[in-house]
Amino acid sequence: MDGIFDNLLLGFSVAFRPDVLIYAFLGCLVGTLVGMLPGIGPLAGISILLPVTFGLDATKAIVMLAGIYYGSQYGGSTTSILMRIPGEAASVMTCIDGYAMARKGRAGAALAIAAVGSFIAGTFGVIMLTLVAPPLANFALRFGPPEYTALLVLGLVFLAYMSTTSLARTMIMACSGLLLGCIGIDVMSGHFRYAFDIKELGDGIGLVPVAVGLFGLGEILSTPSRTVTGKVVPPRFSELMPSRQEWRQSAMPVARGSVLGFMVGIVPGSAHIIASFLSYAVEKRVSKTPEEFGKGAVAGVAGPESANNAASTGAFVPMLALGLPTGPVTAVLMAALLIHGVPPGPQLVTDHPQVFWGFVASMYVGNLMLLALNLPLVGLFVRVLQIPYAYLYPLIIMFCIVGVYLVNNSIVDVWIMLIMGVVGYTLRKFDFDPAPLVLGLVIAPTFELSLRQSLVMSSGNWTIFFSRPIAAVLFAICGLLLVLSALSWLRQKDWRAKLAEAEAGEK
Q1: pLDDT of residue 101
Q2: CA–CA separation, 504 vs 507, rounded Å?
Q3: Strands (DSSP E) along 23-107, which ranges?
Q4: Count of CB atoms within 10 A of residue 82's CB?
Q5: Which of 115, 142, 342, 384 sits 20 to 30 Å CA-CA off 482?
């Protein structure tokens, strides 16, 4: 415990530096706005702003980008409560009872409960991250190439199992990302692979143009085809503070949502989305008045909002401790660290303590910033929603093009972004989730290197993956998930299909 305390002191000494505080604040502010704007979302926001961080050190970059991620969980509740439009997918469930509370004249109370619940859950998540990540990283030091190969395969299979699309479609996207990751110079042989004599592809296809294209440009192209309407129910600031009864009604849902969200967040998949749906179902099940849900139940706001914020923090545990991104957002954040020469994984805590503990401490500070931002400035944020998309989207597209070009001063990267934008738009039209593609692209170098090192160790004998206990257990879990997925497919419609239907309600 003394070691953790000393490390936290180191972290806060980094987090309270004026330059780090500025970038933490910018991340939280941008994240709030990104979460509010329908059709953008944290993934697109982080992808678009990733080029901005290239002139920063690793600590400032990850602090700002992570602030956008967990800040968006706060911002998404604002449009959900005031307009019945989820600014972010995880806020779908908040629309139901949040908007009902607003129509009853309790918009201010709903916003306050959402903000305070998010703060408590986010803080709980950071505390658990502080306690769980270092021991997990120490355990992962036992991993060799076969164990890492098995772990990465498990991550992909788990992501496919938890995806709202079919297992086959998710695996197609993930394998496509792995194949894209093979483009460029082979690190073991030095051969120039699959680059079509384009010298700019010698280092492979960059994550930045792919991510910006798929999620930034692709999302912008898709959004105009969706009709976004909603009547704003302005908050009554005179009633911003919830009543004592509303505080009492929200206490246990916040506690349950915090624990549930963090546990779900560690699991690969769209954790913050799944956590909010599960929390809503749990609160409705344990409520003494389930008939109130859908009519302005306080628990229907407090539980899901707490769960999605705790889940967003929990998702950092496997990324930081194991180098395993649990979803597209953490994949992009992991890529940001790699770009800055700081590889996530077991060595992060020991080799880069200032980055790790500075990041953890900044999340404590960031949650305080978000609490201060989301209540007093809610009126200002609502005005952002009045900006016509006809002005907003061209500016975003221009920012995407300029940002991608400035990374390497390469027009090839711009073309890759434009192609990926069209690909992202097409994939959405055919109900393919592009997120696993990015995940596959991020882990491709590590996966290929671990796989080939494992086969070198065994002289090409594949049984090495089943003769080592940890690797064998991980592959056994993969097999179990594939069997469960097959059984779900045979039943035609499982919980993932229902989740997909619910998410479609925001489109």
Answers
A1: 81
A2: 5
A3: none
A4: 25
A5: 142
